[in-house]
Design brief:
By secondary structure, the chain is mainly alpha-helical. The protein is about 60% helix and about 0% strand.
């Protein structure tokens, strides 16, 4: 019974070791450190710097001119004739009667 447990644990350790490139000990740890460092400097840090730069640009633009958005078009009037605008009741032409 104990040998089956030991064999199962050994198989799991073997699978994990092989899935990480087959390296063991210090070389395995060193390879993971190198890969993590490269990933950080190639992907994570540039995206963080870009996000920080965009936030700084947005803050600078908002602080420099708080009234920078100006509506350039006049609002379109409501085309309905029998709507609720200004208390316009449902008036119909009674000349047809």
């Amino acid at each position: 019974m104990r040998s089956s447990w030991r064999r199962a644990i050994g198989n799991v350790r073997s699978f994990v070791g092989n899935s990480m490139g087959g390296l063991r000990g210090g070389s395995n740890l060193a390879s993971w450190v190198v890969a993590g460092t490269l990933a950080y400097f190639l992907w994570v840090k540039p995206s963080q710097d870009l996000k920080r730069e965009q936030q700084q640009r947005a803050a600078l633009a908002a602080a420099s001119d708080p009234y920078r958005y100006v509506e350039k078009r006049k609002p379109i009037p409501d085309p309905q004739e029998t709507g609720l605008i200004y208390g316009n009741k449902n008036r119909t032409n009674k000349s047809e009667d």
